Structures are given as structure tokens and as C-alpha cells.
């Protein structure tokens, strides 16, 4: 009824109440014509109703009572109901998207690993159906990539994050996730353009600077790796991480004196960090 707890919009049986009034009027009119019944003027008209007229209403009542009772099983929970009803709204991108979201939520609540895999695979199918219906559905593309990542499908993860980025270039999250997937595969040079894209949009967060610096470091472009950290030092609240990264580059270049200077600056910002202290102690000293 919606009185005791909210009912999602797609569960719309309650909206059929008013249209049902018209159906009731039509039904009574047709039955009255079949049995040639009209309401007498006297007060004892109930006794004059033909038996067939009465039994038709009893039959109708039984049929609808059975349907109503059977429908109760579909209302076991949201997932059961939406799984049953998706057939009626199979061309709705939003309906498939909502069912997929419910399945993903349920998968995190279940403890059985095989059941989790089944629910997430089913959710992925509904997300893809939503995109098939409406290709520019940003949330569905984004969630396909997210679920593909959970299911260890890196190519699909990258593909759909790229689609999401094409649909809405103002959101840098897809680019960040793409870069992470590429770096996990060792494709650092391919990850760099995405990380540069993110740093231009997240100027007040160090994480993209850190990852971009690391990508340049892994490709051997030490100059750009240092430059990225210099930009972070200039733009962000003072923190030790960019100084440590620069020190690591100079250590790799065997410029230990310069590395020591940056580690000492990092230690001033994070005096209780044992990792920085250990790096300092491990630097070779001149004889």
C-alpha cells in the first residue's frame, strides 16, 4: 500500500486502482446484458438477481484472489520481484539498471562465493542490456566497467570506462580507473595520458600526481617524474610524499647527495615516518 514503507516506482500495481473502476463498470454492464438483469424498483431486488449473475462474480472473485495470492510470492524481496517483473519492462534501460544494482548490493550481503559470482554475473548482463537499449547511459557503462573489474575482466573494464569517459568527460574517475588497470598490466606509457588528464582536473589531490610520477619513473623519463612532483609541491598543501618520490629518482640516478636533501625535507614534514628514516640510513655515504 505504501503506508508502512516506500514502494519503488516500477512496482506500480497500486496505480491500477482507478483504471480498474472502469473495468468494473464494463464488466457489470456486460453481465447484466447477458443475464438480462436490471435493478428492480422495490427494496427486495437482491433476491431477484439471477444465479448466473451471482456465480459470475463468485468466479471472478476466486480468479482474482488466486492471482493476488500467487503474486505475494513475487514480493518475497526486491530482487525476486524485479527479476519476475523485468519481463514486462524488458525494453527499459532503467529497469535493467535498477535490477543490476539490486543484484550487486545483494552479492555483497551474501557470504557464499559461488552465489556472489552468480549474482554479479547476472548483474553484468542486466547492465549490458541497459547499455544496449540506451548506449549513452553513463551510470550503466560505468557500472559495467566496475563489475568487470570485480570479475577480473580487465579488457572489458577498460573498454567501458573509456565509454563512460566519452559520455561525460567532466568526471575524471573513469580515467583514473583506466590508468590503474593499465598500470597493473605494466602498460605505463599507455596510462600516462589518462593520468595527465586526471591531474588537470584534480589539482588539489596528490594521488594522480603520485601515480603519474611513478608511470614516468617506470618508463625511464626521470626528468618528467621529478617535474610532476615539483608541480605537486607548488600546488598542494606541504606533504612528504613528493619529496620522497624525487629522492627516489635521484637515488636511481646515483645522485645520493641530492636524494639526501629531499629526504631530509620530507623528514621535516613527517618527522615520525620510519620509512623515510630508513631510506636516509640506506643511502650510501661518500668515503
Shape: rod-shaped
Tally of helical runs: 14
Structural class: mainly alpha
- What characterizes the major β-sheet? none
Portion in helices: over 70%
Q: How much strand content do the residues show? A: under 5%
Low-confidence stretches: none
Mean pLDDT over the residues: 89
Q: Measure the end-to-end span.
A: 85 Å
Listing every helix as H and every strand as E from the N terminus to the C terminus, the arrangement reads HHHHHHHHHHHHHH
State the total count of DSSP E strands: 0
Rg calc: 33 Å
Could you explain how this protein is built, in words?
- The protein is mostly helical.
- The protein contains 14 helices and no strands.
- It has helices at 17-34, 51-74, 78-85, 93-109, 113-133, 138-150, 154-167, 173-184, 188-201, 206-218, 222-235, 241-252, 256-269, 274-282.
- Helix 6 (138-150) packs antiparallel against helix 7 and helix 11 (222-235) packs antiparallel against helix 12.
Describe the structure in brief:
By secondary structure, the protein is mainly alpha-helical. Helices cover about 70% and strands about 0% of the residues.
Blueprint (SSEs and pairs):
Layout: H1 17-34, H2 51-74, H3 78-85, H4 93-109, H5 113-133, H6 138-150, H7 154-167, H8 173-184, H9 188-201, H10 206-218, H11 222-235, H12 241-252, H13 256-269, H14 274-282
Helix pairs in contact: 3-4, 4-5, 5-6, 6-7, 7-8, 8-9, 9-10, 10-11, 10-12, 11-12, 12-13, 13-14
